[in-house]
Fold:
Amino acid sequence: MSGIRALFATLVCVCAFSAPLCAADLRVVPSPEPPAPPLPSERPTVTHHTVEISGRRLAYTAAAGVLVVRNAADKPLSSMSYVAYTLDHVRDPAHRAVSFVYNGGPGSSTFFLHMGAFGPKRVVTSNAMTTPPPPYRLVDNESSLLDVSDLVFIDAPGTGYGRVIDGHAKEVFGIDQDAAAFADFIQRYITRNERWNSPKFLIGESYGTTRSANLVNVLHQRGIDCNGVVLLSTALDYKTIIPAPDNDLPFVLFLPSEAAAAWYHHALPSAHPDMAAFLADVRRFALGEYTMALVQGDRLDPAERRRITATLHADTGLNQRYIDLANLRVGPDYFEKELLRDRRRTIGRLDARFLGIDANPNDSQPEYDPTDSALTPVYTVLFNAYTRTELRWNPALPYRTNDYDEVFKTWDFRRENGGFEGKVLAPAVTEDLRQALSQNPSLRVFTGNGYFDLATPFAGTEYTIGHLSLDPTLLGHVEFHYYDSGHLIYEDPASRRKLSADLRTFIGGLAR
Structure:
């Protein structure tokens, strides 16, 4: 007998042998809601270490754990894992700089920046090629920023050792939702660790730059100003990187990066000993004659079309017939496949210096990104080994390097503070950054750009920053830095050292 039928039979029996029941007496008591799963402990695992940076042996403390972020109604949304490194023996810890560091995706953990760029330990990888299989090497990171700033590496909701609480994915998976979650994390961290009055920096890579431009403004609205924002491999306005039938801008802005890749692989029809001078010429052509040609569309004069085709061939090494058939528009995915097709090789999207081998050389686009394929296994293995051995941090959950499948099913790209919608949704956070720079005129922004980045082109950064509509007094508040590397700037050893030196100067100058 079902529960409802049993309840009905019981009521009948009661009615038969007792006084009559009124309707108010026949209420069915609802079943209690199942208890929510317990929240993870927020007590971090603490260990003590030393590292040598710039010839100095520094003692530091590592705190690894999770913080739970909540919505405005104080309901828990997600746990977010982190590792914080603080320098020991500091005279005034409350006033020492603290930098919050994160990768992008959206839906990526922060193990790349943590273990490749700025953490006190660094994975050793082969430069621009696949690293031989395990055992891999982990070494002291002479390029760590720990000598000038404490460092908090934060994994986005759904990644790392953190998990989104059931039923709350839509409250953290979105441009504005994500920024709110990170703002809540930072606010909780500086409260628990007495860092409210510390100089504060945001360091984001790729989608992490999208997050930073939004987050620095959200923090300002909460009364928390930052000293500086570091944008590495910048994506602030997606109409600069997503081609569409009604959006030619990406073809213009990717051209200098494609030229840099062709220069690196010796695929140009003529030699150019000075890459910087060559790219300066390509920039001028891209933003001048090439832009004007694309603007004319189908009305472009045939003679001018032939001249533009010849120049594109000279700047990229691509076959003129291929360029013409592509209607003068070769997006990065097609370029990655076409550049070295005659050598049966593809080039990397994240870093064009890397080479890949596809099953079918005649396909129009690469089968995979050789950069990601070469680097992810090394970082995954060593991050898991490092956290569980040196940091003594052993969560029962597996470490998620990314949560792309779930994120892209749910992610909300819509927002109120600006965006562009053509055939594909292309959001922007440029207005957020403009507001932050205008309302906090002491704020400074550092942009780091890899020449061989075919995901977020350096010309796109230049264009986007140049179209923020900043007051003239603020134009010098954004710095541009360039590196002979790709999307993960630190994957080239010389670029890693230069990036570290540039950021020491940037942070040190603003944290006084």
